[in-house]
Amino acid sequence: MMMSSLLSVLSTHDIEVAETLIGVIRFLLIFVAARTLAEILVRLSLPTIVGELLAGVLIGASGLHLLLPPSAHASLNEGFINVISSLASIPAEAVPDLYFETFPSLQAVATLGLYALLFLTGLESELEELVAVGAQAFTVAMAGVILPFAFGTFGLMFLFQVDLIPAIFAGASMTATSIGITASVFGELGYLKTREGQIVIGAAVLDDILGIVILAVVVALATGGALEIAPIVKLVLAATVFVIAAIALSRTAAPGFDWLLDRLKAPGAVVVASFVILVLSCFVATAIGLEAALGAFAAGLILSSSKNNHAIQQSVLPLVSLFATIFFVLVGAGMDLSVINPLDPSSRSALIVAGFLLVVAILGKIASGWSFVIDKPTNRLVVGLGMMPRGEVGLIFLGLGTSAGLLTPSLEAAILLMVIGTTFLAPVLLRLVLKDKKPGGGNSIPDEVAADPVGLI
Amino acid sequence: MMMSSLLSVLSTHDIEVAETLIGVIRFLLIFVAARTLAEILVRLSLPTIVGELLAGVLIGASGLHLLLPPSAHASLNEGFINVISSLASIPAEAVPDLYFETFPSLQAVATLGLYALLFLTGLESELEELVAVGAQAFTVAMAGVILPFAFGTFGLMFLFQVDLIPAIFAGASMTATSIGITASVFGELGYLKTREGQIVIGAAVLDDILGIVILAVVVALATGGALEIAPIVKLVLAATVFVIAAIALSRTAAPGFDWLLDRLKAPGAVVVASFVILVLSCFVATAIGLEAALGAFAAGLILSSSKNNHAIQQSVLPLVSLFATIFFVLVGAGMDLSVINPLDPSSRSALIVAGFLLVVAILGKIASGWSFVIDKPTNRLVVGLGMMPRGEVGLIFLGLGTSAGLLTPSLEAAILLMVIGTTFLAPVLLRLVLKDKKPGGGNSIPDEVAADPVGLI
C-alpha cells in the first residue's frame, strides 16, 4: 500500500471492490458457460472438454469478449465494463486496466488446474503397462513428430511458396500433442488405463520432451545463430534421465511417502504431502530445463504405487474439476476465429493453407498409430486420434512466431485453424470410433474409476 | 506477447522459467514450513493454525525474507535471489521485480482458500442453533466492538496524549474479530458446532458487518468530510437484508439446489455447482457494498441444509487444506516484528503503548463473553477468547492508517503487536481452557466431523 492521502485510500477501496467483482464475474461466466455446454454434450455422448473449449470460444476473443486473455489484443465487452463501473463506482476507462492486470491470477489458478490434471493422469497410469508399451509409445511419438513436421514444412514450401523459416515454424507447430486435452478425453471416455490410452499418454509425454528440443532448435535457426549441438544433447539427456528417475522412484519413493504419511498427525496430511511432491517434481523439472507440466505428470507416476493412491486421487479431483475447467475455457477464449471468416475474400487464402495444414496435422498423427509393432490386439485408429489435439502447445509456437514477426497473417490464421480443428475434432472422432465399445485390450478398469474417471461424484 | 525480436522471445522464455521457479519454490517453502510447525504443535495439543502463522513469521518479513508480501517493503533474501538467478539464467537484479510482480497470483490463491474456509464454516453451521443464539451473538458482537473501541480510544487520548484521529484509528483496529482464524481454531478443536462456537461465529459475522460500517465512519471523520448518515444507514440495511436473506434461502434454495444436482450429468457436478453458489453469493455481497468474505460464509449457510452437505464438505476440504494454509502463512509473513525489539530503546515507548492496547484488546473481547443473557449452560470464557483474534482485519486498519500518514511509528508498532498478540494468544488460551474437556452444552458433534474437523483424512 503506497498511498499518500486518504482520498487515494478511498479509491483504493473502490479499486479492490472492482477487482473482486471482476474476479467473481469471470468465475461465474466460466463455470456457467462451461457447465451448460458440458451438460448438453454429455447428453450427446461427447466429452465435456469440448463443451469447455466451446464455452471459451463463446465468451472469449471470438465471441462475447467477456473472457479476454491480454494476449488477444481485443476490446473488452462494453456491457461488462458498464456493469463493473456502475457497481464499483469507478470510471469506465479504468475497468479494462484492472481486468487485464488481474488476469494473471486467473491464469495462475488455471495452471494449477492443468498440473493437477497431469498429476492425476500420472496417478491413474498403470506403470507396468506404461513401461510395457514404452517401445510403442516411443515409435508413435517419433512418427507423430516427424510426419507432420516433414510434410507440413515441405508442403508449405513447394505447394504454397512459403519461405524456409516460416514453413519450419508452421511444421513445428504441428508436432506436439496436447497431453492435457488428450488425458482429459481418454479419462472421460474411461480409456485412460487401456493399452491404447497408455501408449498415447506415453507418446504425448515424449512429444512434450521432443517439443522442447524442437523449440530450442527452431529458435536457434530463426535467430541465425550457429546451431549448437551441445545444448540440444543436454536437453535430451536431462529429459531421459528425468523420466527414468521418475519410473525408478515410483518403486522406491512411494513406500517412503506412505511411511511418512503414517507418521503425520496434523489434519489434511494426504492432500498437502501430495501437493509438496507435485511442487517438488515441478521444481526439479524446471530447474533442469524441462517443462513444469512434465514434472507434474512425473509426480503422479511416482505416487501411483502409493497405497494411499485412492485417497490422493479423491483429494485431487475437486482441484481438477474446478481449475482444469478454467484452463480449458481459457484455451478456448484465446482462440480468435474471426480471421477465418469464409465470407471475407482476404481470408480465403488462409483457409486454403489452413485446410492443407489441418489435413497434414490429422493424417500425420493418425498415421503414427500404424507406426509401431505389437503382438497384442490394439486399436491403432484410437492411438492415432488420441495423438491429434495440439491445443496450447501449438498456440505457444504460434505465439512465438507471431511475436517474432516471422509469420504472414494468412499463415498465422492457418496455424490457428489447425490447432482449433485438431483440438475440437479429436474428442468428437474418438467418441464416434469408440461408440458402444467397452474399453478392452487386456486391461480392466476398476468400476469406481470407470464410473467417474476424471470428475467427482 | 508483445515482443519485437526473437532475442526478446528468448529472454521471455527465461523470464517464464524464472517465474515458474519462483512460484514453485514459494509453494514449497510455505508448505514445508507450515507442516513442520503444524506437526510439532499437534503433538503439543495446540491448533495447527498457530504453526501456520509462526511458519509465516519464520520465512516472512520478520524472519528469513523468503516469503515477502510487496506491502512489507523489505529486501528479498539474497540466497533466494541467487538460486533463481543461476537456475533461470536471468540477472540477479531482475529477480525481485519478478518476485513481487507474481505475488498477487499467490494472494489470489490464498483468498480462494479463505473463502473456501468460510464457506465450509457456513456449511458446518447448525442454522437452527445459529438463529437460536442470534440474540446472544448480537450482544457479544456489540459489546466486543464498543468496549475495545471506547477504552482504546479514550485510553490512548488521556493516558498517552494521542490525538483524536489516530486514537480513533487504533481503537477501531481493535473492533473486528477475524472470522477466518476464529473458525479455524474452533473447527480444529471440534467446537464449531457447540453453543459457544455458534455464538462466536455469529458474533464474528456481525463484527464483520460492524467493521465495514466503522471503517466508513472513521475514513469519513479522518478526511474531514461531513459525517453523512445516509450511506451508513444504507450499509447497515444492506448487511441486515443480506444475512436474513441467506437464512431464508437456506430453507427454500437448498432443496432447489439438490433438485438441480439430481439432473446434472456431467462429472464433477457437486463441487462445481457449489463453487457457482459460492461465487454468486460473493458477487451479491460485493455488489451491495459488503465484504466478499461475508458472501462466502452466507453461501455455506444457504447450502448447509442441502442433502448433499457431506459430499460438498468432502470436495471443499482439499481446497481448505491447501489454500487456507497459504492464507494464514501469508498473514504471518506480513507481520514485521523487528519494530518491537525490546533491546532497542526507541521501541520501548511503542512496547508500553502496545502493552496497553493488547490488554484492552484482550479484556474487551473477554468481557463480551459476559455481556449476554442465556438460560442454558454456556462457557462464557470460551466465547470471550473466541472473539479475541484480530488477524487480517486489524491489519487492514493498520494499513489504511499508515498509508494515510495518520499514525506515529510507535502507534503503528503498537497496533501491530496488538494484532499479533491477540492472533497468537487466542488459540493457545482456548486450548488451555478447553484442555481435556469434551464439547458440551447441549450440542453433539457427528463423530466423523469431530475426528477430522477441518482437515482431510
UniProtKB/TrEMBL annotation, chains A, B:
Compartments where found: Membrane
GO cellular component: membrane
Residues making up the signal peptide according to the UniProt record: none
Keyword Glycosyltransferase: no
GO biological process entries: proton transmembrane transport; sodium ion transport
UniProt superkingdom: Bacteria
Topological type in the membrane: Multi-pass membrane protein
Transmembrane segments: 20-42, 49-68, 130-158, 164-187, 199-223, 229-249, 270-303, 315-339, 351-373, 413-434
Entry GO MF terms: antiporter activity
Keywords associated with the record: Antiport, Ion transport, Membrane, Sodium, Sodium transport, Transmembrane, Transmembrane helix, Transport
Residues annotated as domain Cation/H+ exchanger transmembrane: 40-435
Family to which this protein belongs: Belongs to the monovalent cation:proton antiporter 2 (CPA2) transporter (TC 2.A.37) family.
Stored PANTHER family: NAPA-TYPE SODIUM/HYDROGEN ANTIPORTER, SODIUM ION_PROTON EXCHANGER (EUROFUNG)
Full protein name: Putative Na+/H+ antiporter, CPA2 family
Lineage summary: Bacteria, Bacillati, Cyanobacteriota, Cyanophyceae, Synechococcales
Gene coding for it: kefB
